[in-house]
């Protein structure tokens, strides 16, 4: 006898304006009333109809963050809680928490692209790479923490990465002479 087993995958869209949620469920029969409840950071819960056996692409309009007909805005970064259910909802559901970092990733990409890979001062360039690597690890740590329901740690790591990126971008360079790399890594 076939059993319904619900599962969803959050799929990268590489776009700060969309969230992709794919149905990875197996169904014994066509489900009744499939819905996706999403808790958006700082906005609350939204329940949407869910299309089974396909990728569901969600944006600011579908979440009620922007009006129909107005421009679609970037979705906020932070911890999202997703609950996919089919009737009866109290029995058949699956939950996920994810750390969305798309806006932070765009900021990181901007900082990375400012890095002049062909700069002659190797020590300064190496220090900038070390700084960007540290920021990248904070971002990845934030995602890993959210995936493991360590929400406080996820937010702490996200905030640290954001602060470091702001300082990196504001300084225009690493703000050093390269001595840190020479002293600690050479």
Question: Briefly, what is this?
Answer:
This protein is α+β, with helices and mostly antiparallel strands and 186 residues long.
Describe the structure using short key phrases.
186 residues; alpha+beta; Immunoglobulin-like; four-stranded antiparallel beta sheet; three-stranded antiparallel beta sheet; 7 strands; disordered C terminus
Q: Could you list the spans in which at least 5 consecutive residues all have pLDDT below 50?
A: 174-186
How many structurally independent domains?
2
Strand pairing plus helix content: what structural class?
A: alpha+beta
Mean pLDDT metric? 86
Q: In the CATH classification, which architecture of the largest domain applies?
A: Sandwich
How would a textbook summarize the main sheet?
Answer: 4 strands, antiparallel
Written account of the structure:
This protein has 186 residues and is of the alpha+beta class. It folds into two domains: 8-100, Sandwich (Immunoglobulin-like); 102-185, no CATH class. 36% of the residues lie in helices and 24% in strands. α1 (102-114) runs antiparallel to α2, α1 (102-114) runs parallel beside α3 and α2 crosses α4.
How are the SSEs ordered, and which strands pair?
Blueprint (H helix, E strand, L loop, with lengths): L7 E4 L6 E6 L11 E6 L3 E6 L5 E5 L18 E9 L5 E9 L1 H13 L7 H26 L3 H21 L7 H7 L1
Antiparallel strand pairs: 1-2, 2-5, 3-4, 3-6, 6-7
């Amino acid at each position: 006898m076939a059993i319904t087993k619900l599962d969803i995958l959050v799929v990268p869209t590489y776009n700060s304006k969309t969230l992709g949620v794919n149905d990875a469920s197996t169904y014994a029969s066509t489900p009744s009333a499939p819905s996706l409840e999403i808790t958006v950071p700082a906005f609350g819960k939204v329940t949407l109809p869910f299309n089974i056996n396909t990728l569901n692409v969600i944006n600011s309009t579908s979440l009620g963050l922007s009006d129909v007909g107005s421009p679609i805005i970037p979705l906020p970064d932070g911890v999202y809680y997703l609950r996919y259910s089919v009737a009866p909802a109290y029995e058949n559901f699956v939950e996920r928490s994810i750390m969305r970092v798309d806006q932070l990733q765009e900021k990181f990409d901007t900082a990375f692209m400012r890095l002049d890979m062909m700069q002659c001062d190797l020590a300064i360039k190496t220090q900038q790479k070390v700084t960007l690597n540290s920021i990248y690890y904070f971002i990845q740590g934030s995602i890993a923490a959210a995936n493991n329901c360590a929400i406080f740690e996820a937010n702490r790591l996200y905030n640290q990465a954001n602060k470091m990126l702001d300082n990196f971008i504001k300084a225009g360079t690493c703000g050093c002479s390269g001595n840190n790399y020479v002293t600690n890594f050479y």
